Amino acid sequence: MNKFQKNVLGSYLEVCGLSPKTGFYRDGCCNTGSNDSGTHTVCAIVTDEFLSFTIKNGNDLSTPRVEYGFPGLQAGDSWCLCVLRWKEAYKAGVAPSVKLRATNLKTLNFIELEDLKKFAIDLN
């Protein structure tokens, strides 16, 4: 893992969330590496609508899973989502907002920047 990874805007990746602590490496950032098969690179602010959607699609993000160090999410939490899960939610019309400065550059291998900007909370 490169601890100095870039975000989708080309600057250094910012912290996504510390409470709960997010990221594939649980470092608070959407850093990624070769062992991150889910590509947890989109920093999103989850909503109840998104959490319901993802449960219906086989990925319960609301229930704590202590064996994986996963606290369970609530609406308003910032979390590094799998890029394909965010894209799936986008296509279904339930994509959560994103923090572009905390969304990893690798995301652009899967999602257009213009699509992410539609949901950005940190463009200014």
Account of the 3D structure:
The chain is an alpha+beta fold and 124 residues long. The protein contains three helices and three strands, in the order βαβαβα. It has a single domain, classed as Protein of unknown function DUF2237 (Phenylalanyl-tRNA Synthetase, Chain B, domain 1, 2-Layer Sandwich). The longest helix is centred in the last third of the chain and has 10 residues.
Core attributes:
about 20% helix; three-stranded antiparallel sheet; Phenylalanyl-tRNA Synthetase, Chain B, domain 1; about 120 residues; alpha+beta
Question: Topology of this protein?
Answer:
Elements: E1 40-45, H1 48-56, E2 78-82, H2 83-92, E3 97-98, H3 113-117
Antiparallel strand pairs: 1-2, 1-3
Strand order of the largest sheet: 2-1-3
Q: What fold name stands as the CATH topology?
A: Phenylalanyl-tRNA Synthetase, Chain B, domain 1
Q: Total strand count, please?
A: 3
Morphology call:
globular
Strand content: 5-15%
Weakly predicted, low-confidence segments: none
CATH domain class: Alpha Beta
Q: From N to C, what is the helix and strand string?
A: EHEHEH
* Residue share in helix: 10-25%
The largest β sheet comes out as: 3 strands, antiparallel
Tally of helical runs:
3
Number of domains: 1
Q: Could you state the CATH homologous superfamily?
A: Protein of unknown function DUF2237
